[in-house]
Amino acid sequence: MEYDVHDELLSFMSSGIYRFSGSNVVFVDPVRVLSNSYSRFRINSAGYYSRFFGVPSKGNDGNSVDSSSSMKNKKRKRNSQSLNEREKSAENRHQNARPFLVSAYESFQRATDLLHFLPSLLKEDDSMPDKCDTELNFIELGSLWQAPLYEISLSLPMENIPAEGGSQPSCCEGRAVPVFNNLIRNQSSYDLEADFLNRQYILPGKCRFFMSDLRRVHDLIPAQPDYGYNLIIIDPPWENGSVYQKAVYPTLPNRYLLYLPIKQLAHIDGALVVLWITNREKLRAFVEDELFPAWGVADISEFFWLKVKPDGSLIGELDLFHHRPYECLLLGYINAKNVNSEKIPKNKVIVSIPGSHSRKPPLGRLLSEYVPGPKPARCIDLFARELVAGWTSWGNEPLHFQDSKYFLQRGSTISDTDA
Length: 419
What we know:
This protein is α/β, with parallel strands linked by helices and 419 residues long. The protein has one domain. 23% of the residues lie in helices and 18% in strands. Strand 1 (17-19) and strand 2 (25-28) form a beta hairpin. The longest helix has 26 residues, at 85-110.
């Protein structure tokens, strides 16, 4: 048994995914997973885990979920008798999910080799260039009148110049292209460097991105249905009071999501649709009753993202009514007539340390076995995190999706007339 655990940790060191035998639980280190997308560069862990970087780990005391979610904050917990009908539905949903979350956390805490390794995930790599103090706000830049004039400079490999060893070009040439409302491609299998407003970005091989608002979303529809997408990941900027108060990013009214052309984006042989959703019962009802039926998504399954600290404890008490230490993602199929509806497991739990602004963990490798249609699969990520300054382009994750990946700028808003 000890050998199996040790072997799993060795696999995690290279893949960034730790699988717990006999369960629907995995631990993910986004830094390692994303770094595997690059041929010459790596994600800076200090930048990704900036919310925890510099905070010393106190070590895991082995407490269970029940003890870590003690009654220290009784006054912050809601009395069931004071809940309205929607809040009662949300609490019932939480109670149904709780056994899976408790079991997942207990499995996580039994992996002592992984727990001892967690603090090292946050160690800074001295070989990495310094990250810029300020990040560009692409949402604000895209709304300026100068937006059509902004260009990004790509260092493209020169043609007919063989690379030493055949893996990396020896010479490159620069080409400036519009950064907004323009499909930007890296069709090579190696990293492509780019400069924008004196900041450097790295695009992984076989990657594309498209920064625009929803008025241009139909530009992403493939010309032929047999060239559609097999995996569609959607992380909407849901209306959220906390996000609004902190001005993290603009939010989008729920009804505008009904206009996303998900059916037209899906491959004719089937697509797996993955939707990140908050714990608000109003949103859940909207998705189940209106959004998924409008998109034609069926055979729904639910996954959970359980957030932990570098010391292995939960980022918050499990049973607090607000600010639960987990988020949900709903998965379903479009056009997948020949796909077994039991293919997607139920109540799978993804455990990870959240990055800045709770960046979602990369999903490609975890979901590849459930994706219908031809292989290699094609992936599109709507409302992906915008690019940030430094030596990364956050969220780029080609992995098993070797053809392309688009980015639709997160947080863009439109008016009634635009819809």
